Amino acid sequence: MTSPADADTEVVVAPRPRPRRGVSLGDAGPPIALVVIFAVFSLLSDDFRTLGNVQNIMDAAAVLAVVTCGISFVLMMGSIDLSAPGVMGASAIAVSLLVANNRNDNAYGLLGVLVALLLGSALGCLSGLALVSLKVPSFMTTLGVSAVGLGLATLMFAGVQPNIRDDMLDSWAVQRFLGLAYLTWIAVACVLVGWLIQRYSRLGRYAFAIGGAEEVLALSGVKVAPYKVAVFTLAGTFYGLAGVMVTSQLSAGLVQAGKGYDFAAITAAVVGGTLLTGGRGGILHSAVGVLLVTVLTNGLVQVGVSPYWQGGVQGLIVVAAVAAAVLPQRRRNQVTK
Amino acid sequence: MTTPVLATPAADQAPVSGGPTVGQRLTSFMPVIALVALLAALTFADPDFLTQRSLTAAVRTSAPLAVLAAGATLVVLCGGIDLSIAALCSLSTVLFAMWLPDLGGLTTLVVIGAAGLIGMVQGIGHVVLRIPSFIMTLGGMSIFAAVALVISDAGPIRIVDRDATKWLTLYVGGIVPMSFVVAVIVVAAISLVLKLTPLESFVRATGYSESAARLAGTPVDLVKVAAFTISGACAGLAAVMLVSRNFSGSPTMADNLLLPAVAAIVVGGTAITGGHGSLWRSLAGALVVTLLRVGLPIVGVSSAWEQILYGAIIVAAVALTLDRSKVLIIK
Amino acid sequence: MTAQTQVNALEVNALEVRGLVKHYPGVKALDGVDLVVRQHEVLGLAGENGAGKSTLLKALVGLVRPDAGEIWVRGEKVRLRSVVEAADHGIGMVFQEQSLVPNLTAAENIVLGSEGPGVRRGIYRWDTMRKLAQAQLDKIGSHIDPLARTDTLTFAERQMVEIAKVLRIEERTSHPPVIILDEPTSVLESKEIETLFTQVRRLREFASVVFVSHRLDEVLDVCDRVSVLRGGQSVGEVPTAGAAPAELHRMMIGSTGSDDHYHGNLAERSDEPARPRLVVRGLSGATFRDVDLDVHAGEIVGIVGVHGSGREDVCRALFGAEPTLAGEVTLDGDKLDLSGTRAACAAGIGYVPAERKIEGMVGPMSVADNMTLTKQKSRCSGPLVVPQKQATLVDKWIERLSIRTPHRGTAIQRLSGGNQQKVVLARWLVAGDIRLLLLDHPTRGLDIGARSEVYSLMRELANSGVAAVLLADSLEEAIGMSDRIIVMSDGRATREVACPAGGKPTPLDLVKEMV
């Protein structure tokens, strides 16, 4: 059984009172932390509490939010995914070579974006297939697939950086609607879609259940392998989209488009309340986590901390968050790998 | 039923059948087979490859990778993984470059000691906080990278005084690079200590079955912390080797060594599930990976394929060496 | 269903098992079991640990493939290869270890794997799903909210969810299903048990029930008939009307009572030492409270108790493998450090875990390395391992315990269970400094020959002055081996029963104390 603090509020729409297990602090924690951190930075920095900066934060969170959407499903199953950098790199180069660019005469527009997404799906599918058919743990398969993605990107890159000249893709990063960049709205849409998948699709619910008790699913006659592959494919698609978004921001395709996003996304998901052992958390949790990480990064820069610390801060919070989640449940003779 | 005396045992049960499977036999020779096959293929593609000069160069390139992989192998043998080695190595190159003007000849030892200490902190975090080694070292990786960026101001630091690392650039007998000799000595020394003391039993028992090891009273936690410490110290030594070659320290110098190092470990045949494997295997694995790296351009394959090959090799090698009886549900 | 079997639906047995056989390496778990479950009856299944109950149940739901024998469902011979196939034939089981996904809602768990109209094209229709689940819960008159998360429910409520889930197999067949309840009462409180029994009686209206419990009074209370298993064989059936627990128990134990076990403590022992070797006072932990225990040198003290009595945890706590909350333990007058297994080993305590393959031995390592794993000093000179010293020592113990292994370098996982267990035991003996042995089901999974060897070894150790705590596999084993027996119930040591060579209690005496 998981800890009492696991309750997942979206799932239980029951009128039934549930005081028996206590108020679920695990769910309330991240939003409260977000508010507190926001308040603290607002006090510390004049620049932080401007509307423009809030827009900046939202825009800066967009790509990370999409990557985190993908990784959340994988983490929900209790697996892990390190393939984001490779998949994003491959999709970034692919899309920049398919839309109008300085390297060739292609100008497929939205179709090019679609192909980049499919490339992401394919790479994600590869991770999943290696996991279920070769029985290699996901952190190894996705590490391998990340390398494959980076290799593909390097092959397509071929030494000359593709700069995009596609108006649509360029506009995504520049044009604003209701004060937020199109990219940010895409991220919001992704979170919404992710939440719907998690809440209303068999895929999402089974991903959740696989993290909860995989053996029970098998006992109930559910074949879990296809769902695992599907979840990794879904995650790959999200990474593919994130690669396209980075390309839009930079107006160029970079092999390194996804550098560091794997770890940042794991950090965001974990901070949002997703347990690495699976079966707990969700897209909305992760969205809060993304905002937390982004606000923290932005705030630290605003108060004058070197941006180079960004990764270090993420490293610290991920270790702290995992330790906080693991410590209450620890037993003697527990095997920790 | 009457009391049987100890000397008259009951009829024996059928023992659990089976020696090593074909897969196990194959993987036990995997690094050697791969090495020979690669050498043959490269010689076939370019008959000039099998010269003393290019072999010396390849062996020299492999030294930092071999040291890095050997250290992390200890952690893998204990059943964990250390993903922070490359970042820690980069950080150590920066520390070396920064401390050299003050410490002079002592810098090498101090850097190795500091890296070992940092590794130990990760090990303690893993053991005391019960954070999975994978996430602990992933966190460590990003912290070390950040520290390296900040203290170096994100740029390379040139080394003026090259005497401190000159010894590593020498050649033993004019042929064998000193850095490779050092790598072999490190692997031999650690292996020997393991072999001659109860440590090998402790490490393997921890890796094969942590709970059984604990209930047999072996010092599981100490062994794990020690493994992380040595892994860190090896990253420090690898950093000194890199500095001796590049005459500078840089916050991202070793970052691209993580994948090759993991590949070297698994290609060597060390099981990612723990217990089975050795440091010698990782040394051979490092040679395989290095040959692949220098060999691809020779056979006319773009170096971009290198990454793809690493990916494929890691997955394939892990699939071959994984002890599936241990993990019923693969996450 | 073929035509001829439809002659008279009520006369056809709901489930019939004929001559079922299942071998495990070294053990015959099922040795020609016959079982008949009639329609609309509650059949009790009784038997000691190791009688073959769980293997039989697993065979009935397709989790174990029998080596020989037949299973007939309503006059039709069937082969069951998975839980799903068993469900297709109308057989479902409520598992002892609950089989619910904790982070899904009760409704999802009830329909899991056969959502039907609850999911259309991969999209959940929560309302339909809730109605489907509600219909199942209504069948058993439960008022659980279908949309409550399963891990927010009490154990008893979760059991209701399981029963509701199992009843889904009604949708798969047009016949009354067979519902197997495996030890459903073991973790329930008495009020909850009453509710469960009401449910079981209600189930009889539209299903056949197989009820498995180690509490004989419950079996007699709720069942129409009881079938008794012993040593993998059916030994008889009793109608419950008018039957007494004692009668059933006699059938479970059979004529091969404690006599079959090793009574070696006939050897003359010197006067009991003034002070016990192990003194435990007020030991409390998560699952046990205020346990007092004395063990003298040369004495074997058995601890008996039903599942959940906390005796395993007491044993592990003494070895430092389970945290304690209060209490004091002394060994030969010295206060014992319970903070970890290392301290216990250093104090001369040895532990033989019940899960030999997972916790007892390091499978891929050699016999020699397993044997010297704990007492490293015995094979070292200073910090260095001396292979010759290890070889001599290990070979000596291989011979003394007649461990059958091709070589001391053979991986221990290639030995038979009995020989593995002897290596695990030898681990504590090689240094000759063992003072207290904690034996947690030391004969589990061993055949009779290997068992008696382990018995002899235990007795020999006791005679040489080692104190031992034994958690036996069966009551007979506990009675046969122990000098004294402590009865534990609900985490407390409730009684102490003397168990001298001449005046052994009967298992029945102990059962009275246990429940």
From TrEMBL, chain B:
Keywords: Cell membrane, Membrane, Transmembrane, Transmembrane helix. One of its GO terms (cellular component) is plasma membrane. It is a multi-pass membrane protein. InterPro entries: ABC_transp_permease. Its main location: membrane. Pfam families: BPD_transp_2. One of its GO terms (molecular function) is transmembrane transporter activity. The chain crosses the membrane at residues 26-45, 57-77, 107-128, 134-155, 167-194, 225-244, 256-274, 294-322. It is found in: Cell membrane. PANTHER family: ABC TRANSPORTER PERMEASE PROTEIN YPHD-RELATED-RELATED, RIBOSE IMPORT PERMEASE PROTEIN RBSC. This is ABC transporter permease. It comes from Nocardioides zhouii. The lineage of its organism: Bacteria, Bacillati, Actinomycetota, Actinomycetes, Propionibacteriales.
From TrEMBL, chain C:
Keywords: ATP-binding, Nucleotide-binding, Repeat, Transport. Residues 15-256, 268-515 form the ABC transporter domain. InterPro entries: AAA+_ATPase, ABC_carbohydrate_import_ATPase, ABC_transporter-like_ATP-bd, ABC_transporter-like_CS, P-loop_NTPase. CDD domains: ABC_Carb_Monos_I, ABC_Carb_Monos_II. One of its GO terms (molecular function) is ATP hydrolysis activity. PANTHER family: CARBOHYDRATE TRANSPORT ATP-BINDING PROTEIN MG119-RELATED, GALACTOFURANOSE TRANSPORTER ATP-BINDING PROTEIN YTFR. This is Sugar ABC transporter ATP-binding protein.
